[in-house]
What we know:
Shape: globular
Helix content: 10-25%
Oligomer: single chain
Number of helices: 3
Number of strands: 7
Radius of gyration: 15 Å
Number of domains: 1
CATH architecture: Roll
Order of helices and strands: EEEHEEEEHH
Distance between the termini: 20 Å
Strand order of the largest sheet: 1-2-3-5-6-7-4
Structural class: alpha+beta
Amino acid sequence: MLQHKQPNSEMCFVCGRSNPVGLYMQFYDDGELEVHSEFTAPAHYQGYPGVVHGGVLAAMLDEVVARVAMIGDPHHFMMSVKLQVLYRHPVPVETPLRVVGRILRLRGRLGKAEGRILLPDGTVACESQMTLADVPDELLASTNPALLNWKVD
Length: 153
């Protein structure tokens, strides 16, 4: 499968290179419909003992799903309007996970996409549906590009 590495930012909780409490995730796309990442959550991201906190899982899904809009345009920033997460199975810490986002529809400034987190055996542990909207122009205009430091490493 052809893979394109997507950019990372400086301080994003999910993809930031320099966030001391961040996940440091890296994302790749297939050039068409899907974005994916591999991640193993350390024990300090647990909620219930031995289980990854649901908020961390939701953040991972939010990021991978929003990135589907960047396929072919790494500067097409979209944000969550509505994120629905279905937690199907507990996700153990220290377990390799595959995180996948897939575009369903992009029209104008809005989009629909879905995501899932897979356990090593392929079991879907979590899945999501998200409505996205383009980041407002005024927010983009007020963002300091040096602080964002959006680039492929």
